[in-house]
Amino acid sequence: MADRQWLRAYELTIGKGGGEGIKTNELKVSFEIKKGDTESPNEATIKVWNLSDNTLQRAMKEFDRVILQAGYQSNYGLIYDGNIIGKRIIHENGVDIILELTCGDGDEAYTNAVINKTLKAGAKPEDTVKEVVNSFKKYDVQSGEIPTFKDQKELPRGKVFFGMARKYIRQAANTTDTSWSIQDGKMTMVEHDGYMSGEAVVLTSATGLVGAPEQTNDGINIRCLLNSKLRVNGRIKIDNESVQMAKKEIGKDAKKQDKQPTALDADGFYRILQIKYIGDTRGQDWYCDMVCVSIDDTSKKTTDRKKKKK
């Protein structure tokens, strides 16, 4: 039976990593969360209206982590877990006081984690991954789903690893033909032609699909009602008959004309590359906007792994 998409539910926790905090499921809260198959930390802007003076001061001085669960009473779960990297107080209409939080999922680990380790001859990329995970754990980022690597190349001789952990996990990802990212406080890796484990989320008008999916050069754009089961690199299933086909552009730049629209999957299964959660507990917004690709098209569309990074 399909989940019934009614009676919104949410719970926002603002606190210290592994420590005390405050929870609310009654105040007005709005959020915009952007997640992607990229190594850069997933971003979120979360606003909370009219906290008590004491809680507001604690939040400004003490709290450094936010956890947001949202959805519907029949389909409710985690949609964001990250570090608070910016705070400000907004005065609105001379009445409301708003706490605005700017957040980065795993930002502290991405920015600060380092490795100082010598790996012996014969070490494999999976050994590098273990060292990176250990360095991330110091910043409350745990190990998530990681595939069994194929055809791993062993180090011909011992090697000293000294520097930013993100540099070494990037190297391991390139060597194993995977992409890596931090998703809700967990470091995950996925093969370029694969997807995360678990059943595909079936999206129809009865299960929350809003409007018609749109085929573009960068992916299949899909909007649905907010659904916590959706996750980056997970799968969805849609009816291809509902997809609005891409229109051939005329008179545009030649290179853009050569770019082909994202292929449709024969069975309607797609991998999620990007998700934007948009929500307002007292307003109309309560959506997920996604960019998806067919599994066979995934290796061509993965977002930023080829960019030069430090």
Layout of SSEs?
Elements: E1 8-15, E2 21-24, E3 29-36, E4 43-49, H1 53-61, E5 65-72, E6 75-92, E7 96-104, H2 107-112, E8 114-119, H3 125-137, E9 142-143, E10 159-164, H4 165-176, E11 178-183, E12 186-191, E13 201-202, E14 209-215, E15 220-225, E16 235-237, H5 254-258, E17 269-280, E18 286-294, H6 298-301
Parallel strand pairs: 9-12, 13-16
Antiparallel strand pairs: 1-2, 1-5, 3-4, 3-17, 4-7, 5-6, 6-7, 8-10, 11-12, 14-15, 15-18, 16-17, 17-18
Summarize the structure.
By secondary structure, this protein is α+β, with helices and mostly antiparallel strands. The chain is built from 6 helices and 18 strands.
Commentary on this structure:
This protein has 310 residues and is α+β, with helices and mostly antiparallel strands. It is built from six helices and 18 strands. Strands 1, 2, 3, 4, 5, 6, 7, 13, 14, 15, 16, 17 and 18 form a 13-stranded mixed β-sheet that branches. A three-stranded mixed β-sheet has the order 9-12-11, with helices on one face. A two-stranded antiparallel ribbon has the order 8-10. Strand 11 and strand 12 (186-191) form a beta hairpin.
N-to-C terminal Cα separation, in Å? 48 Å
Instruction: Provide the domain count.
Output: 3
Oligomerization category of the chains in this entry: single chain
Written as H for each helix and E for each strand, in order along the chain, the element string is EEEEHEEEHEHEEHEEEEEEHEEH
Inertia-based shape:
flat
- Which percent band covers the strand fraction? 35-45%
Number of strands: 18
Indicate the structural class.
Answer: alpha+beta
Nearest-angstrom radius of gyration?
21 Å
Low-confidence stretches: 302-308
Count of separate DSSP helical elements: 6
User: Which whole number gives the mean pLDDT?
Assistant: 90
